[in-house]
Amino acid sequence: MSSPSTPAKRACDSCHRRKVRCIGEGTNPCKNCISAGLTCTYNAIPQKKGPKGSRAKVLSELRETQRQSQILTGYPDELGFDGRPVSSAFIRTPGLLPPGLVESCVEFFFGNLYPSQPILHRQRIQDTIMSMEHSTEAYCMIVALCACVMTQSNMSVPPNVALHGDVGQISNVGLGAVLLEESIRVRRGHDYIENPTLLSAITSFFYFGSYFGLDKDNTAWFHLREATTLAQLMGMHDEETYKTGDAIDCSRMRRLYWLLFVTERTHALHKHRPLTLHATIHPPNIDEDISERPHMTGFLQIVNLYKPFDDTFISLWNKVRTNCSPAWLAQLQNQLSDALPTYLECTEIQAADLKTSQHWLRMMVWQLCVSQGFVSSMATDNAMTFKYPIEISRDLLAVTHQFSQQAMEVHGVGLVSLGFIFSASYQALYHASFCFLG
């Protein structure tokens, strides 16, 4: 028995209502509430004991009361896929994403990244923003979009946007990292895998872009594979998928598939990764929207640049296969050299992406020629000589002077070879020098 000076332990509201022994300390969430998926509170005024009732019925009433409370506070879908209220760990951070920041990030995306990532629709994105208050999926996608813009492109926050608390004191990239953590944390309380949607696949792609911008290659690759897996679960690789459904959604799904196709190949070459997506569907319709024709022209050209890098090439690149024909590699090198027209009918940002990607891919083919033992100082084909990297490097460096600094710095994450421009140039010079000296 407790002494008169020792205060009696008080049961939390839920345990008191259910007439069960409260396993808690009076301040921390008790074990019963954690197990039942209830919010542990101590708000009720102690009353006299009443008759016992059905504990199961009381538990259902408590869950329903808390669910209704969450609806009134603006989070009607904060219930887990098992029907239980989501843990407070998944509740959104109030004030973290002011409307002005969302608007600025969306405008930046459409003004700079959209030509290389034409996967969003302006009106649909506004509808998504409007549904953020009652949709976890919409909230996570918009926050991921903002995170990607901030981390990958280092967009500056407009001075008229008031940020929440200490967030206003950190860098643009730091803010992007905070937004990325928020989106991923909240998404853990939402079941996006069993019934994937276009929004969930795009969200995973933006996670990839954000981690790529933060130089976390392994985590970036994980989320890229998550995006490609969601795409396959939705049947984006099957042309039959696009014969029914909303026209705009089908259009964006098709574009997302090809963007993932290009991005996966870029990283397969850069990091020796395997492939999951293949050219199994038709390309996007270039005349779908006449106002987007320049964007789509450039987008299709980058897709065509990467199409030759199929399972055969990647298997050789990853040393899964060992034998190939020098004539086949020489043909691929010639195909890359002639792949782009002299005048590119696309935006400057896309042109920078295309030109640097072209020369970077030439470098990758030459490196495979080296590993296969096909390079020789006596070769009649210039692409099979030790001097060829110098030619690639010269062409690559010349490209950097053709475009503005903004066009070189702001690029679509699907065309990440721009991020490897200096690496490719260094590799070219290193290989050439080593071969001449060695």
From TrEMBL:
Residues 11-42 form the Zn(2)-C6 fungal-type domain. The keyword Ribonucleoprotein does not apply. It comes from the Eukaryota. GO terms for biological process: DNA-templated transcription. GO terms for molecular function: DNA binding; DNA-binding transcription factor activity, RNA polymerase II-specific; zinc ion binding. InterPro entries: Carb_Metab_Trans_Reg (IPR050797), XnlR_reg_dom (IPR007219), Zn2-C6_fun-type_DNA-bd_sf (IPR036864), Zn2Cys6_DnaBD (IPR001138). This is Zn(2)-C6 fungal-type domain-containing protein.
